Amino acid sequence: MSCGEPHETPCSEVLAEVYLYLDGEQDADSYGKVRHHLDECAPCLRQYGLEQAVKALVARSCGGDPAPAELRQRVMIRIQEVRLEIEHVEFRVD
């Protein structure tokens, strides 16, 4: 994914690290780069919000136990599918 705008840290790199960011598992430099990118990139900020929501939902559903990787992957795939459907509809309407 890319918003098409130039950034110091590419969108794909930020989205690949969003779970580390959410979990506070990055060093200060990486954390700062991701935070700066999210502050200036609306598409990545939306994706970050989705990731944050999925993480919270899985935490509630799994009673605090780590979610199985397969479950997380299935949820993320479905979210991507719905997101693409929404974008497709928005594109057709505009």
Salient structural properties:
94 residues; mainly alpha; flat
Short description:
The chain has helices at residues 11-16, 18-23, 28-40, 42-61, 69-93. The protein has 94 residues and is mainly alpha-helical.
Give a written overview of the molecule.
The chain contains five helices and no strands. By secondary structure, it is an all-alpha fold.
Topology:
Layout: H1 11-16, H2 18-23, H3 28-40, H4 42-61, H5 69-93
Helix pairs in contact: 3-4, 4-5
Overall tally of domains = 1
User: Helicity level, as a percent range?
Assistant: over 70%
N- and C-termini, Cα separation: 21 Å
Radius of gyration: 15 Å
**Biggest β-sheet description:** none
What class do helices, strands and sheet pairing give? mainly alpha
Q: Extract low-pLDDT stretches.
A: none
If helices are DSSP runs of H or I spanning 4 or more residues, what is the number of helices?
5
What general outline do the C-alpha atoms trace?
flat
How many individual β-strands?
0
Q: Beta-strand percentage?
A: under 5%
- Mean pLDDT value: 78
H/E series, N to C? HHHHH
